[in-house]
Design a protein that fits this description.
316 residues; mainly alpha
């Protein structure tokens, strides 16, 4: 009886002879499915294309399974998991998008260079919350500083400014992008070449454009009116320029009248927001906040004052 080593030697010898007869042949080792005799299986192909069709089919099957898995894992928009993906950003991404909103320049699209088809709601949410809080705090600090300069000013905390600031900022950051997105979608039906941004991309653009107003509001604590207006104009120019440079690639395919009117409305609404914050939260002190001057009571001049004598000196 032949030993196992001799059998293995004969198997390799047979495979070598077969390869010598057919140079294009390739040997495959099937360790998981051995033949009953334990021989090495030999596959013969032509043109070096052995297994190409099997590899293509395997890759296509993997791609189909991966796509099916992604479709099964994608949650509905009414679930919390759907919106959780829009808060899945790291600090470096948020800082890069803030930097892009602070340094707008022509030809540098905020959506293409910073969002990269991955809009987030984390940055816009906290930027709006921070801006509303800073507006309310600085508006109260303005009255405190004014009271220290003039003791006649009566200061009382104005907590309602937090509510007013929050409602104003969040309504602007959501309703204006919604109206803009709806208008661009409508114009897409008129001009087929236009490709508007998605609603979340529009919200993200507006949310990050409001970041420049946070340092502007802090600088408004300087009690110099003309300097406050300069800071406001500078912040408004940077923020509005970022919006115009980002929206221009979308509206430039439309008619010149529509593109000019749309960008003008965008800049005008942004200017109204900045002016509204300045005039409401940093307004001049109303009369009720001024302490009333001391009242001096005087008698009419035609009434003569009768001298009074002490009771001990009164005639008896």
């Amino acid at each position: 009886m032949a030993s196992a080593d001799e059998l293995t030697f004969h198997e390799f010898e047979e495979a070598t002879n077969l390869l010598a007869e057919t140079p294009d042949a390739a040997t495959t080792s099937r360790s998981d499915q051995l033949t009953p005799q334990g021989h090495v299986a030999v596959a013969v192909g032509s043109g070096g294309s052995y297994g190409a069709e099997d590899e293509v089919e395997e890759e296509s099957d993997k791609a189909a399974l991966l796509q099916e898995k992604q479709q099964q894992q994608q949650p509905g928009f009414w679930t919390f998991s759907y919106y959780q993906s829009f808060f899945d950003v790291d600090t470096s991404q948020v800082l890069d998008r803030i930097k892009g909103s602070l340094l707008p320049r022509p030809g540098h699209n905020f959506v293409r260079h910073h969002l990269r088809n991955r809009p987030d709601l984390y940055g816009p949410f906290w930027i709006c919350a921070t801006l509303a809080f800073v507006l309310a705090v600085t508006g109260n600090l303005t009255l405190v500083l004014a009271q220290r300069r003039d003791p006649s000013i009566h200061y009382s905390p104005q907590f309602h400014k937090v509510t007013v600031a929050g409602i104003s900022i969040y309504c602007y950051a959501w309703l204006v992008p919604l109206a803009l997105w709806g208008f661009l979608r409508w114009r897409k039906g008129v001009q087929e070449r236009m490709g508007p941004y998605t609603f979340l991309e529009t919200v993200c653009i507006y949310g990050y454009s409001l970041f420049v107003f946070i340092p502007m509001v802090v600088l408004w604590l300087i009690p110099v009116p003309w300097l406050q207006w300069i800071f406001g104009a500078l912040a408004l120019g940077l923020s509005a320029a970022g919006l115009v440079f980002t929206l221009w690639p979308v509206v430039r395919e439309d008619t010149r009248l529509v593109a000019t009117a749309l960008l003008s409305v965008v800049v005008l609404l942004h200017a109204l927001l900045a002016m509204g914050c300045k005039l409401y939260f940093f307004q001049s002190l109303p009369p009720e906040n001024m302490a009333p001057p001391p009242q001096i009571t005087s008698l009419p001049s035609n009434i003569a004052l009768s001298p009074t004598l002490p009771q001990s000196m009164a005639p008896s």
